[in-house]
Write a structure and sequence with these properties.
By secondary structure, the chain is an alpha/beta fold. It has 15 helices and twelve strands.
Length: 363
């Protein structure tokens, strides 16, 4: 199964050595190549991330968008080699500590080496702050425990904690002495973001960090993320199912469907000039202040079961443009514009066939 998966997409790259990896990813801080995650379910391999190759560029915010169950969280977990057993992660995840430094293959690290990369180099904010905090420990205890576990100076670390909390518009004295359940959803989520940054990582993976918050608090946290990205020189992977939410924040967007990438490019290109049927279907299905309700259309059908993914393009069973080739062959990458790529057999037909009232080329 693994060998077949590795060869499945002709557009994927395979790193042969360190220098070639750097040549292929000149501005990447994390580069995933042929990343797959599989589970053995009753002697049948269930693919929950399918041969994904993508770069997180240094200093950018990359939005990863897709339906629930599309593989977004698995991508983030794979980037930290944090997929729990019996899941099996294959491919390569290269982390570049500095712009001219040698890459570290995260999937080949020992347990001790991996511990120093997690949280110190690559950190993660999980869904739901309340489920991430220990309810029997106050917020100060979480910071001190994290600093101690990684042999950091606790006094200096707590000074940084107070600064982080202040930068996230929180009162450090109140937050540090509180338990998570004593804080509002927005406050606990911001405290969790501060905790994820306490060890001075350069990469922040955010898995639906605003999903449980109201719209105003979502917008507030997104604004704060833009500020802390600049101040702390972060590169951020922001996972969400809400395309309009992240579109104004992210520099680039990667659209996942059924465990593989369908389209990737600059945010304004994806929103205004998408060339993949799934991306445009998402845009038509999402309500906005500018979109008349009558023009919204649900995406017919359901996403495939990970143990029974279709041959060819995974979106073919739901796609109005699908042909026999789509149902049997893997679509190649098509370069729509510089930095904008789509995996589709019919990219030139998509804008006219699937129109929507949004973006300069979408209507």
């Amino acid at each position: 199964m693994t060998n077949q998966t590795t060869q499945r997409r002709p557009q994927q790259l395979e790193d042969s050595d360190v220098q070639q990896a750097r040549n292929d990813t000149p501005n990447a801080i994390v580069a995933v190549r042929n990343g797959s995650v599989t589970y053995d379910l009753e002697n049948r391999d269930a693919m929950v991330l399918d041969d994904v190759s993508i770069d997180l560029k240094r200093g950018e915010i990359l939005g990863v968008v897709g339906e629930s169950g599309s593989g977004k969280s698995m991508l983030a977990n794979a980037m930290m080699d944090a997929v729990e057993e019996p899941g099996i992660t294959t491919g390569s995840v290269r982390y570049y500590p500095e712009s001219d430094g040698n890459p570290v293959n995260v999937l080949e690290l020992s347990r001790g080496e991996l511990q120093s990369v997690r949280w110190e180099e690559i950190s993660m904010v999980f869904q739901g702050a309340l489920s991430s905090f220990n309810p029997t420990m106050d917020i100060r205890g979480h910071f001190e425990e994290t600093l101690t576990a990684h042999d950091y100076d606790v006094e200096a670390g707590m000074k940084r904690a107070r600064q982080l909390l202040s930068d996230l518009h929180l009162d450090p004295d109140r937050i540090l002495e509180s338990y998570a359940h004593e804080l509002s959803g927005g406050m606990s989520q911001r405290a969790l973001i501060a905790l994820s940054l306490i060890l001075e990582p350069t990469v922040l993976l955010m898995d639906e960090p605003t999903a449980a918050l109201d719209l105003l608090m979502q917008r507030s946290i997104l604004s704060l993320l833009d500020d802390i990205k600049e101040k702390y020189e972060l590169s951020i992977l922001f996972i969400t199912h809400d395309l309009p939410l992240v579109a104004g924040l992210a520099d680039r967007l990667a659209i996942l469907y059924a465990f593989e990438i369908a389209e990737v490019g600059p945010s304004e290109e994806i929103i205004g000039n998408s060339h993949h049927p799934y991306t445009r279907a998402l845009l038509k299905a999402v309500p906005t202040l500018e979109t008349p309700p009558a023009s919204m259309e649900p995406i017919e059908g359901t996403a495939p079961n990970p143990a029974h993914t279709p041959a060819g393009c995974h979106y073919a069973p739901r796609c109005p443009l699908a042909t026999d080739a789509c149902r049997t062959e893997t679509p190649p990458w098509d370069d729509v514009n510089p930095g904008h790529r789509t995996a589709c057999f019919h990219p030139e037909k998509v804008p006219e066939a699937i129109r929507f009232d949004g973006g300069e080329n979408g209507s």
